[in-house]
Amino acid sequence: MHQHSRGSPGARRRASGPRRLDRSRRVDARHARAADLPDDGATATRAPHAEASPARRDQATLRAVKVAARLAAFVLIATAAASSTAAPLAASRHPRMLLDPALREAWRALAHVSGSPVARAIDLCGDAGTTDKYDHALYQGAEWAKVLQACLVAWAATGEARHATTSLAYFTALLDDLDVRGDRRGGDQAARRDSGYAIRNLGPYTALAYDWLYDQISPALRAHARQRWAAWLDWYAARGYRARAPGNNYQAGYLIAATLIAVAQAEDDPRRWSWVTDELWRGDMAAALAAGGILEGGDWGEGWQYGPLSVAEYALAARVAAHAGVPLRGVEPWLAGVLRRHVYALSPADRQFPGGDTEDGTANLAPSGLTLDAIALGDARPDDRRWARGEIVRLHLDDDDSWLLYRALAAVASEPADVPRLIWPTWYEAAATGTLYARTRWDDRAVWFVATCQHGLDVDHRHPDAGNFVLSRGKDDVIVDPSPYGSQSTLTSNAPAIASSRLPAKYTPSQGAWSTKTGWDFTTQTRSGVIAARCDYADQFRFQERASDVADAVRDLVVVPSSDGSDATIVVVDRARTGAGNRAMYLRFRVPGELALDGDVATRTIGATRLAITSVARSSGRPALGHTTRSDCYAEEEHKGRCDAARLPVSDMRLDVDGPEASAVHAISATAADSAAAPRSAPLTGDGWSGVRITGPREAVVVWPTGKREALTYRAPRALAVTHVVLVAREHLALTARADGDACVVSVAPSSAATARPVIAVLDDACHVELDPATVSAAAALGPLPPPPPRAPPARHRRWGCSAGQPAGAPTALALAVLAYARRRRRSSRAAR
After folding, report:
1. d(CA 506, CA 487)
2. Cα separation of 759 and 649, whole Å?
3. For a surface tag, which of 7, 189, 241, 703 has the fewest beta carbons within 10 Å of its beta carbon?
4. Is there a common fold for 2-421+792-822 and 426-671?
5. Could you state, in order of their start, the residue ranges of all structural domains in the chain?
């Protein structure tokens, strides 16, 4: 098992035994949407006896489904070939993929550099050729894929026959074997394991070996490989998990396998080439890479336990496809987004926000070299490639031998260069996932803030947590999201929840997964460092096609930093019309370790940081401390929406606020533990408005209208320099002020001038107004994205999981409908980092 432990972290998790298998049985609310039924949580990936529907136990029905699915795949591929707009790949000598004279020469040079990825590949392949320590496939061929990658790099760098021989040995093992080299238990069925996960290990690297070693493979073995690939790809097109849904890790594995296989054998199977180019790239991936696509902004919707390998596979497949003549638009800005998401998602301790399912026992994850390899080896801008290489060096991320092909390609992409952080903006919003990343400065003394607000996405491993946020002060993580793997509960995070009567009882009081409207009303950071965002999440309580029964639900987040950016106070304003007095709003703020509560204030010292959470105002309820004894939610099948499990030790300050008009204001300060005085906060109120005054680490007033009208007049204390944040969602509002005794009377009224939202300004002790202008998000550096490609209407409604891009009335509609019915069993995606 030592060898296995040197493999991918995902492979280690998958080897953890029955407990990990139980996790593969998660059926989430999103799949209940696809099935058009409430999730009953009873189905399982591997256990036929666990299927809930009697129809699924009917063998005749299942046989019919299989026949229909195979027919669907055949007709889809044949239709694509008949109507293809792709030029056939010109017959050419092998190698066709990657291995040009420049790459060979660069790898030859690196072969003599101790510790380089190429030198390590040579060592690993030499070991594999003389020992039996790599004879076991480990997880679905992962070990053999690792060895084959290394040996191909070793052969390309040295030309030595021994490395070609070892390459072919593992090429054959991936084609024919299952668990031990020579067992001949693999074959056509091997790619079907775990709903098709195995294809990402079996397909891409056998295709690369076929291409690079073409002249050293006998015609009979080449024909055998093509037959095997056809069996794997035909099955995956018909039955594989999420074959047509970009942004999911299974689809990434399928895409790279299909692309590299199609290029390797294009002259032998032109229909496959047409299918890959027209359907997968010009259809599915063109939409994903376009404006509004699932990849916009470079985040990975499933979270960054699953993101690194997936983005590396996309980047490599896109490079191969482009070189083969497939015109791709959007790859360059996507990779620019991947780089910036990496930079902004790093905390001051160089850990990254998970963004979805993870089994890691820490608040934030270690960054992965594969993410940066994707940028360096992909068709990215030269600066982005250099900066990615610089991050690999800075973070010491080049020491994993699991993916030496990617490492070796990245190593020759460009010379490393430091990311010019000091001249970059300090905030970034990843559009597709609705994730806001912001910080106050570019060093390890920064206050770092991440918040999420997005409607339901067609991906796995996301949690129902619109309005969630985390906060770090320097290297101290003070507000954390400890949500365990597979959580379907809002209460595991810091997001607000409401007891909706629209959702099935087992999902309440949490948010649901069917929203189409949830999102940010505004996000901004000003020149002085103030961060403000409003999440409108009322639509989170939609159930399938039935509208939400929560009329209004918004969370405002305002981060007010100290003048040097090393301390901050967050004002959290929650307001909702829940629809009934017995339908409450539930708030949680989760903290590592044990909070202490004194009246309305919960405190804890974490490292060098003093954290204080103050309940400033509320319409009802009393704050309390919360704890959980659960580390996962799998025992909560009947009460998914009530689970408050945590994957690391936490406590929380919680508040349950009665409906129908629920509101609460909290001030969360993170300051130096040895500071002389803690920040203070107090409520403000007046006719048509409410607010809060905070006295540290910066004097500030945060105000919002309490009715529908956004024009308002309010009073606030005068001081030398007070930051005013007026939480209004519309533009063209101007702020004016006049002195009145010891207060400033401030008015916000319509204006013909273009003004930012919210309105943020600094008032002096004479009530003179100086606007605090908004800064530009780093997302502006991505450049324009291509428009979405024209797509024919889907044959079925999206909720049935129809493959995008199929023409209305296609002959496969019925087969796909039956297939969709068969796939109601949820396959919980499992992938390496």
Report:
1. 13
2. 39
3. 189
4. no
5. 2-421+792-822, 426-671, 681-775
Average pLDDT, the chain: 86
Residues 6+ apart with CB under 8 A from 442: 421, 422, 424, 426
Q: Which residue has the tokens 């590592």?
A: 592
* Class of CATH domain 2-421+792-822: mainly alpha
pLDDT-based confidence at 116, cuts 50/70/90? Answer: very high
With a CB cutoff of 8 Å and minimum separation 6, the contacts of 42 are 27, 50, 51, 52, 637
Residue range 495-522, pLDDT digits in tens: 999 999 999 999 999 999 999 999 999 9
Q: Residue 833 CB: number of other CB atoms within 10 A? A: 27
| Contacts with 115 (C-beta within 8 Å, 6 or more apart), sequence order | none
Place of tokens 């060098």: 608
The pLDDT-based confidence of 756 (bands split at 50, 70, 90) is confident
- Nearest residue to 247 via CA among 172, 311, 291: 311
Strand partners, 716: 744
Q: Report the DSSP beta bridge partners of residue 599.
A: none
Q: Classify the C-alpha dihedral 130-133-136-142 as positive or negative.
A: negative
Distance CA 156, CA 153 (A): 5
Q: How far is Cα 100 from Cα 618, in angstroms, rounded to an integer?
A: 67
Q: Which of 729, 412, 697, 759 is nearest to 571 (CA)?
A: 697
Q: How confident is the model at residue 151 (pLDDT cuts 50, 70, 90)?
A: very high
Label each residue of 157-194 as H, E or C: HHCCHHHHHHHHHHHHHHHHCCCECCCCCCHHHHHHHH
3-state SS of 38-58?
Answer: CCCCCCCCCCHHHCCCHHHHC
What is the architecture, at CATH level 2, of domain 426-671?
Answer: Distorted Sandwich (2.70)
Displacement of CA 266 from its chain's centroid (Å): 33
User: Per residue in 207-246, pLDDT tens?
Assistant: 999 999 999 999 999 999 999 999 999 999 999 999 999 9
Kindly report, residue by residue over 623-636, the tens digit of the pLDDT: 999 999 999 999 87
The strands making up 759-764's β-sheet, listed across from edge to edge, are 681-686, 689-694, 700-705, 721-726, 759-764, 769-771
